[in-house]
Write a structure and sequence with these properties.
8-stranded mixed β-sheet; 901 residues; 7-stranded mixed β-sheet; Acyl-CoA synthetase (NDP forming)/RimJ/RimL family protein N-acetyltransferase; NAD(P)-bd_dom_sf; alpha/beta; Rossmann fold; transferase; Aminopeptidase
């Protein structure tokens, strides 16, 4: 990366404010706090700014900065006075700052170089300044703007905050609270999607490509890349770059114009495909920056996958490329494909160029990319675009999902994931995309939660079920194998979504019908009436009659057709009948037709490019695969049809009080600590969660006295952690009515559990009896990778042993909370199992929302357990809690300010 500092960083420099960002046009830049060493950078920047822009900033002619100005602008305390600058390469192109004007108010101002205005710098700076200000106790921004400075007024008014404006003495006074709102977050997400989509479009739609490391020697990577680009039909300008080439003699490689360096190319280059030794890549990046290249595909290996040295090299590569405005696919990547008309780009190591289609694919594994492409070609499944990202140091699945969200050529998205670099953003982006297009995802390494070699991500400590729950929450279609991935894609690319779970079967094989029925039962699909079992020698007319009946039946939502041909029959007539019956129907049809695993020619509706258009009927090797794919599509369709779900407004929530409490607690416990009972009660009260008080007692006399104060009808409970989950011991003595009951309970409990070794430490508590009910547990944990995760389950050793828990990432919608309660296997106990009284489900959902809100607001709450909650028909009573607060050493990755992570 370009040198940012000529001296050591000043005290208090907030390195966490540094960020790589994507501008409105898809290019990247670096944002960071200013330092005193930036004096020359600031002066050079100011000299390039127009007089009008200077006037808008200072309200008067201000041709140059004095030494005093430079010192004031570059020397800040990073709390009450902060300046953030945006750089590209070695140049500053924009600066934003705030200066405190009161206890919680600051004045904010910006100055953007004229050549870079309109690229969204002001909006990005405002987002990052607001986030930093909130962390430093500032809650409101004010600004003075000249009336004709419309661009700056727009920055404030379109940020999503509620902005108040007044006109005074020829100046517009702008004032607004900077707390994130649903509107401001929605604005940020929309801007993020547009800019990140453009950054990927710059990679996928180049008009010129250079292969750096091109070779005329067959069998080399550089030769394969050049051949595949040339033979794939890329219509743009193609260049070969070989540093060993003689510029006078080696003017062509494989019929492509050759040059010794990319700087020597006699035209513009949009995309560079890099296949040189790892230690040479950094120099190539600098050459590409000088040439104005917009993006890189780094096929070279020798980076994070080889160890510490490679990780350092990889970090440097990404930082260097981003600092000059370029995104990177790779390193150690297979490459990218775009089949769009007029592009025909095969910048991969695979000679297979899939046909044009409606399915997009993101793959992290370079090794798996080649067989994946071969499988797609074998199935005749057309592609819109394909990216295999290798070490995924920069461009990730999140970026591709942002692009495919608005890509009209893509109707179905496939993801093969080895790791999740930013799970919170992944969940947010995937949920938005899945609301528009189906997303099918295969995550490897779920059992081990391992991080593949070469991928530099935070390692989660959460169970594999967390990822499965996140997929469900986000509307993703999770699959377990690559075969299942393509089975589901084959259905979604050609057939409509099911409108329900009722499936009709038309078959001429009893054995295969039974397989279909067994699979339907296991997948939760319902049989619509009796299967239409035809004879083995059924004719096309027989199939036609049965098919006309099921397609006319309004109770049928999907159709499975099984055709096993008799001897000396090619099934052509049956295919014609099936295609005619399905034409124009809104019911999806899947088939097991002649044991094909593609779209048979006889069942294909040709599109303009000769591929299979919508309405084509896919065939699967056997009914199990067909029904399995149909079940996945049905589940996704149900997710799409869900009733409107919202994040509820919660009364009695005092976020500011909770934040102040956490700050005060960390002042008392700088390294973090578990909260005592009083502190737990206080923190939970800010979020409207009340806990039934429990009173520690050290003797039988104390227990009697406390029970007397409570009016008896109490319990005596052992508190030592080792006794809580012992199924052979009762750690609670219930229904204590009077002094005799209490003394008997004390004698029995102390004989069973002993007494505390520390006389001053209570081992028992007295607590008022709660209404009888079903015990449940609600927890939240701050994971280094996922951020906050909320869990729910019923109490007990058995449910713990079986892992019967549901998981969700905050914020929880009303639907999320409802699904959490209902998806645990023991949920029937809450709904009146075997004649018991149903409990108040809404009370559980209310607690889930409040815990979700607390852990989302307060990331220093690293663990929260409502570990004993009794739920009855009358409501929920929280009996026991555990909370730990600790400094957040690694901030959450998905913040209200846009950044590349």
């Amino acid at each position: 990366m370009p040198d940012q500092y000529d001296q050591e960083l000043p005290d208090g420099y907030p390195a966490e404010y540094e960020a790589d960002v994507v501008l409105r046009d898809g290019a990247t830049a670096h944002l960071r706090p200013i330092t005193p060493a930036d004096d020359d950078l600031l002066v050079a920047f100011y000299a390039r700014v127009s007089e009008q822009s200077k006037y808008y900033r200072f309200f008067a002619p201000y041709p140059q900065l004095s030494d005093r100005d430079v010192a004031r602008f570059t020397q800040v305390d990073y709390r009450q006075r902060l300046a953030l600058i945006v750089t590209v390469g070695d140049e500053m192109i924009g600066v934003g700052r705030y200066e405190g004007t009161g206890r919680s108010t600051a004045e904010v101002a910006f100055l953007i170089e004229d050549a870079h205005q309109g690229r969204g710098l002001g909006q990005l700076l405002l987002e990052h300044l607001a986030q930093a200000a909130r962390e430093n106790g500032i809650h409101r921004f004010v600004a003075e703007v000249l009336p004709d400075n419309r661009k700056m007024i727009t920055v404030f008014t379109e940020a999503g905050y509620k902005v108040a404006r007044e006109f005074e003495d020829g100046v517009i006074m702008v004032e607004f609270d900077i707390a994130p709102t649903d509107t401001s977050f929605g604005v940020m997400q929309a801007r993020e999607q547009r800019s990140e989509a453009l950054s990927i479009a710059r990679l996928l739609t180049p008009s010129s490509v250079a292969v750096i490391g091109a070779s005329r020697r067959e069998g080399t990577i550089g030769n394969a890349l050049l051949r595949n680009l040339r033979d794939g039909g890329f219509p743009g300008r193609l260049y070969a770059v070989n540093t060993d080439a003689d510029p006078l003699r080696d003017t062509e490689i494989e019929g492509v114009a050759a040059y010794p360096t990319i700087r020597d190319v006699d035209g513009t280059v949009d995309l560079a495909v890099v296949a040189v030794k790892a230690e040479m890549v950094a120099d190539v990046v600098l050459d590409c920056a000088a040439k104005g290249v917009r993006g890189l595909v780094v096929v070279s290996s020798g980076f994070a996958e080889i160890g510490d040295e490679g990780r350092k090299r990889q970090r440097y590569l990404v930082g260097l490329a981003r600092s000059y405005g370029m995104r990177v696919i790779g390193p150690n990547a297979l490459g990218l494909i775009n089949t769009a008309s007029g592009v025909s780009l095969n910048a991969t190591l695979s000679p297979l160029m899939p046909s044009k289609g409606r399915v997009a694919f993101f793959c992290q594994s370079g090794a798996l990319g080649v067989p994946i492409l071969a499988d797609m070609v074998g199935r005749g499944l057309g592609l819109s675009s394909f990216v295999s990202a290798g070490n995924r140091a920069d461009v990730s699945g999140n970026d591709l999902m942002q692009y495919w969200y608005s890509d009209e050529a893509t109707e179905v998205v496939l993801l093969y994931l080895e790791s999740l670099g930013n799970p919170r953003k992944f969940s947010r982006v995937a949920r938005r995309l899945a609301g528009r297009k189906p997303v099918v995802a295969l995550k490897s390494g779920r059992a081990t939660q391992g991080v593949p070699v070469g991928q530099m991500v935070r390692r989660s400590q959460l169970p594999a079920a967390t990822i499965e729950s996140m997929f469900r929450q986000s509307g993703l279609i999770g699959v377990d194998t690559t075969g299942e991935l393509f089975d589901v894609a084959q259905l979604l690319a050609h057939q409509p979504l099911p409108k329900g779970r009722r499936v009709a079967i038309v078959s001429n094989s009893d054995a295969l019908t039974l397989l279909a029925l067994d699979t339907m039962a296991g997948c939760g699909l319902d049989v619509a009436g009796e299967p239409r079992n035809l004879s083995a020698d059924a004719t096309a007319s027989d199939f036609g009659l049965a098919l006309s009946e099921v397609f006319a039946d309004d109770s049928v939502h999907s159709v499975v057709v099984i055709y096993t041909p008799p001897v000396q029959s090619n099934g052509g007539e049956v295919a014609q009948v099936l295609a005619a019956a399905a034409a124009g129907s809104d019911k999806p049809v899947v088939s097991t037709f002649l044991a094909s695993r593609s779209v048979p020619e006889e069942l294909r509706v040709p599109d303009e490019d000769g591929g299979a258009a919508r309405g084509s009927i896919p065939s699967f090797l056997n009914p199990q695969y067909a029904v399995g794919a149909l079940a996945k599509a049905t589940q996704y369709a149900e997710w799409r049809r869900r009733s409107d779900s919202r994040i509820p407004d919660l009364p009695e929530v005092d976020t500011a009080g909770g934040e102040d409490f956490v700050a005060e607690f960390l002042q008392r416990h700088p390294s973090g600590a578990d909260l005592d009972d009083a502190d737990r009660q206080r923190l939970l009260s800010y979020y409207g969660i009340s806990v039934l008080p429990a009173f520690p007692v050290l003797s039988a006399d104390e227990a009697v006295a406390r029970a007397t104060d409570l009016g008896f009808e109490v319990i005596l409970k052992a508190t030592a952690e080792q006794w809580r989950m012992r199924p052979d011991l009762a750690d609670i003595w219930r229904h204590i009515h009077d002094e005799d009951d209490m003394r008997a309970a004390w004698a029995e409990m102390t004989q069973t559990f002993g007494v505390a070794s520390d006389p001053g430490r209570a081992q028992f508590v007295v607590q008022k009896m709660a209404p009888p009910g079903v015990p449940v547990v609600i927890s939240a944990i701050e994971d280094v990778s996922f951020g906050p995760v909320v869990t729910f389950g019923l109490s007990g050793v058995a449910t713990d042993l079986l892992g019967d828990r549901s998981y969700r990432m905050p914020p929880l919608t009303t639907r999320d909370a409802a699904e959490m309660v209902r998806e645990v296997k023991a949920a029937p106990l809450l709904y009146g199992y075997r004649g018991s009284d149903p409990v108040d489900i809404s009370a559980i959902e209310n607690l889930l929302h409040r815990v979700s809100r607390l852990t989302l607001d307060l990331e220093e709450v690293v663990r929260l357990d409502l570990r004993s909650v009794l739920v009855s028909a009358q409501g929920a009573t929280v009996l026991d809690t555990r909370i730990r607060i600790a400094p957040n050493e690694k901030p959450r990755q998905d913040t209200p300010a846009r950044r590349l992570t």
